[in-house]
Amino acid sequence: MKLYAPSTIREIKDKYDFRLSKSLGQNFLTDKNIIDKIIEESFIGENDLVIEIGPGIGVLTSEAAEHAGKVIAVEIDRNLIPILQDTLKEYDNVEVINKDILKTDLNEVIEQNSVVNGQPLNSVRIIGNLPYYITTPIIMKILEDGVKADSITIMMQKEVADRIKAEPGKKVYGALSVAVQYYCTVAHVASVPKEVFIPQPKVDSTVIRLDIRKEKPVELKDVKIFFQCVKAGFGQRRKTMSNSITGVCGLSKEQVGKVMESIGIDSGRRAETMSIEEFAQLSNSVYDMIRG
Ligand code: SAM
């Protein structure tokens, strides 16, 4: 069965009296080339575990199952569960979990699948055509929870992908760029026009792959302070960096002046010009100042 064919989606809707839910971000993918590209660029091996976020009717799931040792698909909509049991019935290496991805302990899922095909698990590949209303929370949860995955190949709204990929000096460079790039390297996989979804969303999409870094790009004395500085810096973009971080960890304006001077960063700089390395220097210096 060609799951990606618009006619199949219509048939499934009729057969199961299934109604697409706008609030769950259900825009189903109908382009085989994009599906193939996502699978190809996920580099799935036969002893790998694939975790899919939001399988829908199983277009990506079935393709992933052809390559992976095991696929775990996490779908929140219970109306899709009988449909997935039907569309994926020929694959004995797929397990569908009816849960909210934001409430799923993925490290526990990985631990429970540490043996795949009788072999120790090789890599963990997360994939998905994400529900757009929670793209950022999903990504940040995976990264902040330290989920033991190797890569995350995901489709999202183009604008969010642009923010994730952005470099210092760009208008869309912000806290999300710094946060994701701290944990991962980012690769562009595909640009996807809105016409290839049912129903058609208002915006175009992008597929990116996040390769989770084995080693972080900067050394931090305190990760929390680093992210406090990043958040404060981008919280009020028009303020200078030194004004924005006054108050972080209880620092006075005078202390902030000393911090900036000690690392040689001009106090008039704005967050959007600061590289990850500079944020690291800044937060390490804040740490030194409050530890006295
Ligand atoms: N993978 C399918 C495809 O490409 O055609 C469906 C993608 S659709 C954009 C997003 C899917 O995520 C839907 O099936 C939706 O029900 C599911 N979903 C939405 N919120 C979710 C959540 N919090 N946890 C798990 N799945 C969710």
Any overview of this molecule?
The chain is an alpha/beta fold and 292 residues long. It has helices at residues 6-16, 32-40, 59-67, 81-87, 106-112, 135-144, 158-165, 175-183, 223-235, 241-245, 253-263, 276-291; strands at residues 28-29, 49-53, 70-75, 94-98, 115-116, 119-120, 124-129, 151-157, 184-192, 197-198, 205-212. It has two domains: 6-212, Rossmann fold, CATH 3.40.50.150; 223-291, Helicase, Ruva Protein, domain 3 (Orthogonal Bundle). It is 39% helix and 18% strand. Strands 4-3-2-7-8-11-9 form a seven-stranded mixed beta sheet. Strand 2, helix 3 and strand 3 form a beta-alpha-beta unit. Helix 2 packs across helix 3 and helix 6 (135-144) crosses helix 8 (175-183). The radius of gyration is 22 Å and the shape is elongated. The model has no long low-confidence stretch (mean pLDDT 96). S-adenosylmethionine binds next to strand 1, helix 3 and strand 3.
What is the number of helices?
A: 12
Strand order of the largest sheet: 4-3-2-7-8-11-9
Q: Uncertain spans, ≥5 residues at pLDDT below 50?
A: none
Give the termini separation: 66 Å
CATH superfamily of the largest domain: Vaccinia Virus protein VP39
CATH-derived architecture of the largest domain: 3-Layer(aba) Sandwich
Structural domain tally:
2
Largest sheet: 7 strands, mixed
Structural class: alpha/beta
The overall pLDDT average reads 96
Cofactors, ions and other ligands in the entry: S-adenosylmethionine
Report the portion of residues in β strands. Answer: 15-25%
Determine the fraction of residues in helical runs and give it as a percent range.
25-40%
